[in-house]
Amino acid sequence: MSSGSMQAKRLICTEANYIANQGELEGYRASGVKWYIYSATLDLRTSEICRRLDGKRYRVRSEERRVGKECRSRWSPYH
User: Fold this and answer.
1) What is the C-alpha separation between 77 and 79, in angstroms, rounded?
2) How much is the average pLDDT of 16-24?
3) How far apart are CA 52 and CA 38, in angstroms?
4) How many degrees, rounded to 5, is the angle at CA 41 between CA 5 and CA 22?
5) 69/13 Cα distance (integer angstroms)
6) d(Cα 43, Cα 52) in Å, to the nearest integer?
7) Residue 65 phi/psi, 5° resolution?
8) Can you spell out the DSSP letters for the chain?
9) Phi/psi at 40 (nearest 5 deg)?
10) Residues whose CB falls within 8 Å of the CB of residue 53, separated by 6 or more in sequence, listed in order
11) Which residues pair with 76 in a beta bridge?
């Protein structure tokens, strides 16, 4: 039973982070921010994809934007 609880908590946290990131991007678009930086949470649980993306700069309106599953990373505006 506890493993199901842990999976539910992880899902809630990652989905909340996804929603927050999408809201941030919409805010960037609305305020004219052109670029953002991907900031990965770097620890033993960080995926290789997130490690590779850490510190990379992307256009806000770009199709190359990566949206991961179970991601704990954040985006920050780049001016």
Assistant:
1) 6
2) 82
3) 10
4) 80
5) 11
6) 13
7) -55, 130
8) -HHHHHHHHHHHHHHHHHHHHHHHHHHHHHHT--EEEEE---STT--HHHHHHTT-EEETT-TT----SS---EEEEE-
9) -80, 150
10) 38, 40, 66, 73
11) 37
Tally of CB atoms within 10 A around 53: 18
Has residue 14 got a pLDDT over 70? yes
CA distance 36 to 22: 12
Tens of pLDDT along 27-58? 988 999 999 998 888 999 888 888 998 999 98
User: What pTM does this model have?
Assistant: 0.65
What dihedral do alpha carbons 26, 43, 46, 35 form, nearest 10°?
A: 30
